[in-house]
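Meet the record:
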Amino acid sequence: MSERQLRAWQDAGLIDAGIAARIREWEAAHSRPLGLWAIIGLGALTIGLGIVSVVAANWDAIPGETRLAIHFALMIGLAGLLWRYLPDAAAKNAYFSDGPLFVAAVLGLSFFGHVGQVYQTSSPLWQPLLAWLVIFSPLLLLFGRGWPIAGLWLAGVLGVAWSHADEYGHGWLWGQQMPQPAHPALYWGLIACPPMAVAALAAFMRDRSDRPAFWRLLEQLAIITILIGVSIALIAGGWDGRTHHAVGSAAIRSLALVGAAAVIWTVRQTRSGQATAGILAVAAVLHFAQALLLGVHEAMRGPWVGALFFLILWSAVAAGALFARWRRLFQGAIALLALRIIILSFELNDDLLGSGAGLILSGAFAMAVAWVTVRISRRYAPAERNGG
């Protein structure tokens, strides 16, 4: 905390001289030599880059088996250090243990790629990713503390699903390219369900673990993934809308969303748990309703349908954030709503964009929406509440 800020608070009457002195003493006792640590970190980074450069320059000259042996030895050595020091490190600093855990997991992941490079294997990507996930999930989930481990593990889960879906055509096209799985509706429904399962698992473990902060982070990351996926599907108007299995796969995904909402509602009897469950329930209804509408009539593929469903989804997010007192999420949801309304105004008036009147109207509407957004956020944004 700067001395200037302390003096400003003292001059404004927010604190007196005694409190200011105690704040200075506390800051001095708990200050960290950031400059020194920055120099040490820069030196370590330089050494690491030098080692990587030396290895890269002589990569082809090193036999593949030798490289694999060195890589495996590094993994074994790091595993021994984790076994010896991880409990003590976690006890002293809850987040310090995430560093070696992350390095160990990345070493393990790169080892599978290293094996494929040396022996020129042709296995699909999802197989080594799944093997890594099976081997390292116990370590990461039992000892992870912060967002790097939670994000890495969730990325592994999503990577397995995405790479497996890529075997049947690109995952973002939801199986519209050949070859098709044996049961398309079942497959394309279940392949998108891992984030729902992770959200339910994390919510269940939050109050049953000595690391509730880790499971909270994992749940939040899974919910963010779900909202991004549903939002993209709503904007795109249903990626599998032209296939006969669109409604069936959407029904499976919607049931998974409802199941995750039910688990979160049951195990977390708090305002945040109820808000999260409500948001997932709304997402499930909108996702299934859009699939039904897209299958009914071709005219329902217009931009206003996806925009309307997007606005309903993020209005539900804003309402849930208001209920659970998530200030930043509320403000973000309001900003997304405003942005989508502005984009919709351009989509529906694209024939006017060539004229000055159209540009003036669109610009004025954008400014009006921005002004309303600021007013709403200032008046209704809840005070920030810890926990989620």
Q: What stands out?
A: Residues 64-167 form one domain. The chain is about 75% helix and 0% strand. The CA atoms of residues 258 and 281 lie 6 Å apart.
